[in-house]
Amino acid sequence: MMNVKVLGTGCASCRSTTRLLEAVAREKGVDIQLEKVEEPQDIMRYGILSTPGVVIDGHVVHAGGVPSRQKVEGWLQAV
After folding, report:
1. How far apart are CA 32 and CA 43, in angstroms?
2. Tens place of pLDDT per residue across the chain (79 aa)
């Protein structure tokens, strides 16, 4: 199971990123554990300056803006 974290304070882009990750995981049959990290001090620990951020299995893979569907598919295929 992949551990996926969405870093952001709950803005529209953060919610869109969360929905996109859930949808792609469901479509691809990939089992993910999705966690939302919303506290600014927790987000800052990952060293990103713009949200939303995406962390997969402890590695920051994206920061700033909603990622493209193709990027998300690539991340979830790398299992």
Report:
1. 20
2. 999 999 999 899 999 999 999 999 999 999 999 999 999 999 999 999 899 999 999 999 999 999 999 999 999 986 5
Q: Which two tokens stand for residue 16?
A: 């869109």
Under 8 Å between Cβ of 20 and 69: yes
Which residues are paired to 4 by β-bridges? 34, 56
Which one-letter amino acid corresponds to residue 52?
A: P
The CB density around residue 44, as the number of other CB atoms within 10 Å, is 11
- How many CB atoms are closer than 10 A to CB 45? 10
Instruction: Give the pLDDT of residue 79.
Output: 55
The CATH architecture to which 2-77 belongs is: 3-Layer(aba) Sandwich (3.40)
